[in-house]
Amino acid sequence: MKPWILGLTGGIGSGKSAAASHFGSLGVHLVDADQAARWVVEPGRPALTHIVDRFGEQILQGDGALDRAALRTRIFQAPEERQWLEQLLHPLIREEIRNVLDEARSPYAILVSPLLVESAAQRQMSQRVLVVDVPEQVQIERTVQRDQVPEEQVRAILQAQASREERLRHAHDVLVNDRDLAWLQREVERLHEFYLSLQGGQS
């Protein structure tokens, strides 16, 4: 029987990666949308050739890999370039995610994506949505500590992501991650037991 798909999301610094990794250690098959986005532009993949054709060789690093910072700078200045890039990459990322999910042998599989709420296509792939949620101040403190970046930068990222309210509106389940890692892992184990009892992700 094909596994049903749980979409796992949360804002920056919410702990969604820690939650995902604990689900993984329980034997749940995971696919990470961010990783899929990186795979599709690796050297030798057709997408990278298209990007170089469009933006020129200066978009590459010395080793032939994509220079993400240079590309970000280019597309932030020109909305039409960003649109072009999204039209090129989004179908490829979707296909990559599908391929990885098709390999799943666990009763349910997880699509981990920071943009699950913003991306209708990714949301449609999921039968159920779990949001890892924390108060905004906690998100900011954790991210500043983890990435050693200024608070303003974290606030700017928060502004660009879906609002907490918007994410919670799409949630079937919410894991409030405002305690320690041991507590988060116990919550994941509790949800895992519940998810194993579900048919097709619906309770």
Structure write-up:
Pathway: Cofactor biosynthesis; coenzyme A biosynthesis; CoA from (R)-pantothenate: step 5/5. The chain is of the alpha/beta class and 203 residues long. It folds into 2 domains: 1-28 and 108-203, 3-Layer(aba) Sandwich (Rossmann fold); 35-105, no CATH class. 55% of the residues lie in helices and 12% in strands. The protein has helices at 16-25, 33-39, 46-55, 68-77, 79-102, 120-125, 136-147, 151-160, 164-169, 181-196, and strands at residues 4-9, 29-32, 108-112, 128-133, 173-176.
List the SSEs and their pairings:
Blueprint: E1 4-9, H1 16-25, E2 29-32, H2 33-39, H3 46-55, H4 68-77, H5 79-102, E3 108-112, H6 120-125, E4 128-133, H7 136-147, H8 151-160, H9 164-169, E5 173-176, H10 181-196
Helix pairs in contact: 1-10, 2-5, 4-5
Organism: Geopseudomonas sagittaria
GO molecular function: ATP binding; dephospho-CoA kinase activity
Main location: cytoplasm
Q: What CATH architecture of the largest domain would you give?
A: 3-Layer(aba) Sandwich
Helix content: 40-55%
Q: Over the alpha carbons, how many angstroms does the gyration radius reach?
A: 18 Å
* Strand order, sheet with most strands: 2-3-1-4-5
Which blocks of ≥5 consecutive residues have pLDDT under 50?
none
CATH superfamily caption of the largest domain: P-loop containing nucleotide triphosphate hydrolases
Main β-sheet description? 5 strands, parallel
Strand residue content:
5-15%
What is the subunit arrangement here? Answer: single chain
Give the CATH level 1 class of the largest domain. Alpha Beta
Number of helices: 10
Q: State the end-to-end CA separation.
A: 18 Å
How do the helices and strands follow one another from N- to C-terminus?
EHEHHHHEHEHHHEH
Number of domains: 2
The backbone outline, from C-alpha atoms, is globular
Pathway: Cofactor biosynthesis; coenzyme A biosynthesis; CoA from (R)-pantothenate: step 5/5
Catalytic activity: 3'-dephospho-CoA + ATP = ADP + CoA + H(+)
GO biological process, one term: coenzyme A biosynthetic process
Keywords: ATP-binding, Coenzyme A biosynthesis, Cytoplasm, Kinase, Nucleotide-binding, Transferase
